[in-house]
Design brief:
By secondary structure, this protein is α+β, with helices and mostly antiparallel strands. The chain folds into 2 domains: 9-122 and 174-212, Electron Transport, Fmn-binding Protein, Chain A (Pnp Oxidase, Chain A, Roll); 129-170, no CATH class. The chain contains 5 helices and 9 strands, in the order H-E-E-E-E-H-E-E-H-H-H-E-E-E. It has helices at residues 25-41, 85-92, 120-127, 132-140, 150-163; strands at 50-57, 60-67, 70-72, 75-81, 95-102, 107-117, 175-189, 197-204, 207-212. It starts with 24 loop residues before the first helix and ends with a strand. The mean pLDDT is 96.
C-alpha cells in the first residue's frame, strides 16, 4: 500500500489571469477543450470529453462519468437513458453539477446549473450517428436497474439484435439528451505551493461576471 499521506505533486501550470481571459466562459472553455484534444493527440489524455455529472434526489447525492456531446451558448449536452439513476434524479431535481478533470494539463472545469431534456428531434438526430452496437445497447440495457447476471444482459442484447436485424435502429423512447444551462462556470489552473488560480464566471441576467476564488 503506498503512503497516501505523502502522495503529492507541486503544480506548475501557466497563470490564469483576469486580464488574459475572454468575457464569455464558453470562449475559454472552447480554448481549454482544444488543448485537451491536443493532449489526446499527444497520448496524455484518453477521454477529453469525459465529465462527471453530479445529481441528487432528496439528500442523497450521486455522481458518474459521461461524455460531453455538445457545448455552445445554450449549455453543455449529454445523452442517457431517462430511466437511469441520473435521469430519474434530474426529473425530480434538475439542479446539477459537472466536472471536467484534465489532470495532465493541471486543469479542472466545474459547472453548476440546471438540466432540461433536449428536443426529441435532437435526441433522434444524435442517436442516428451512434455506432450500431451502441444503438442496440441503448435498447438492451435497463440502465441502473439490477440484473441477475451478465448472461441476462447478453441475452437481452441478442434479442434486440434479432429484433432490428436488417433495419435501422430507432431511438428508444426512454433515451435522449439533457442540456445543462450553467449559472456558474469555474476554471481551475494548478499553481506552485497550492496557490492555484480559480476564476469563476457567474451568470447575471444575460451577462457574466468574473470572480477570483481563493485556492
Amino acid at each position: 500500500m503506498p503512503d497516501l499521506a505523502a502522495e503529492r505533486i507541486d503544480y506548475s501550470g501557466e497563470e490564469l489571469l483576469e486580464s488574459h481571459v475572454p468575457a464569455d466562459p464558453y470562449a475559454l472553455f472552447d480554448r481549454w477543450l482544444a488543448a485537451a484534444f491536443q493532449a489526446k493527440s499527444d497520448g496524455l489524455l484518453p477521454e477529453p470529453t469525459a465529465m462527471v455529472v453530479a445529481t441528487s434526489r432528496g439528500l442523497v447525492p450521486s455522481a458518474r462519468t459521461v461524455l460531453l456531446k455538445d457545448v455552445g451558448p445554450g449549455g453543455f449536452t449529454f445523452f442517457t437513458n431517462y430511466g437511469s439513476r441520473k435521469g430519474l434524479d434530474l426529473h425530480d431535481n434538475p439542479q446539477v453539477a459537472l466536472h471536467f478533470g484534465w489532470y495532465p494539463l493541471q486543469r479542472q472545469v466545474r459547472v453548476q446549473g440546471t438540466a432540461a431534456p433536449v428536443a426529441r428531434a435532437e435526441s433522434e438526430a444524435y442517436f442516428a450517428t451512434r455506432p450500431r452496437g451502441s444503438q442496440l445497447g441503448a435498447w438492451a440495457s435497463p440502465q441502473s436497474s439490477e440484473v441477475a447476471s451478465r448472461e441476462e444482459l447478453t441475452a437481452a442484447y441478442a434479442a434486440v439484435e434479432e429484433r432490428f436485424a436488417g433495419q435501422d435502429v430507432p431511438c428508444p423512447p426512454h433515451w435522449g439528451g439533457f442540456r445543462v444551462t450553467p449559472a456558474e462556470v469555474e476554471f481551475w489552473q494548478g499553481q506552485p505551493s497550492r496557490m492555484h488560480d480559480r476564476l469563476a464566471y457567474r451568470r447575471s441576467g444575460e451577462a457574466w461576471t468574473l470572480h477570483r476564488l481563493a485556492p
